[in-house]
Amino acid sequence: MLMSMTGFGRGESSDKIHNFNVEIKSLNHRYNDIIIKMPKHINYMEENIKRLIKKNIKRGRIEVYIDLEYVDDNNIDVKVDIPLALAYKEALERMANTLNINEKITINHIVRMPEIVKTERKKDDENEIWLCLKEALEEALDNLIDMRSKEGNQLAYDIKEKALNIKNMVREIEERAPLVVVEYKEKLEDRVEELLNNEYELDESRLANEVVFFADKSSVDEEIVRLYSHIDQLTECLNSNESVGRKLDFLVQEMNREINTIGSKSSDIAISRLVVEVKSEIEKIREQIQNVE
């Protein structure tokens, strides 16, 4: 099944302490590039997250947004730096005496000072928080993969249609190619007879050699065989369950190379027109596979 590289998925999970909301967005990219944005105090989960994503997604830029809320405030520790508070109190009293200010130093003055009161999260149970996060992450991945799969099916259908069009046009080139040699021979005979004006006998052997040389020079049999092979391989890739984006890209490059060779070898107008149409279809496929995993 062909997979697109673009998609979006959302997941949510909760336990007695944690409430996770996860959003995953995937975009086109040559490699598997994962960007994670989450609360700093759970950064140690990054490798677990990447490992799970890479298991399911082989290619694309993956942006992960993780939001964590705590269900209640029992997980918060409040710490007061008493030595620092005493130092602030003494400093404020010295300043008041020096400036002849008769205002009494109160708790309100001290708690406003930096670093006096700190709130910290109690240490999370790493296994517990991972199990909760994993549930939300897997739900988001399932939704993302479902969207990528649906878009992939549409891409596969479109590419197959274009590949069939190319195959039909290559078949027309294959049928037309032998006729080009016959027409060349007839034109050559007519031209030679016109120039000789029936005063000299036509040298059939030299004429045959010229036709053979032209036929060999303009032969596109090998290119056509390889084109058929590339088209068949491309179609097989579209039905694969593996990540085939890079292979498709290579096949399209090879198809383009073969049709360019055919175009350079042929001086026939009909074949030249078909070459242009084939190149146009190949370019459309190339644009489509930029979005394939």
Automatic annotation (TrEMBL):
Please give the cofactor(s) recorded in the UniProt entry for this protein.
a divalent metal cation
Write down the InterPro entries for this protein, in alphabetical order: YicC-like_C, YicC-like_N, YicC/YloC-like
**Pfam families recorded for this chain?**
YicC-like_C, YicC-like_N
Q: Where is the Endoribonuclease YicC-like N-terminal domain?
A: 3-156
Q: Where is the Endoribonuclease YicC-like C-terminal domain?
A: 173-293
The UniProt keywords, alphabetically, are: Endonuclease, Hydrolase, Nuclease
On whether Hydrolase is a keyword of this UniProt record, the answer is: yes
Q: Can you provide one Gene Ontology molecular function annotated for this UniProt record?
A: RNA endonuclease activity
Hey, which family's this protein in? Belongs to the YicC/YloC family.
Which named protein is this?
Answer: YicC family protein
Q: Which organism is it from?
A: Anaerosalibacter bizertensis
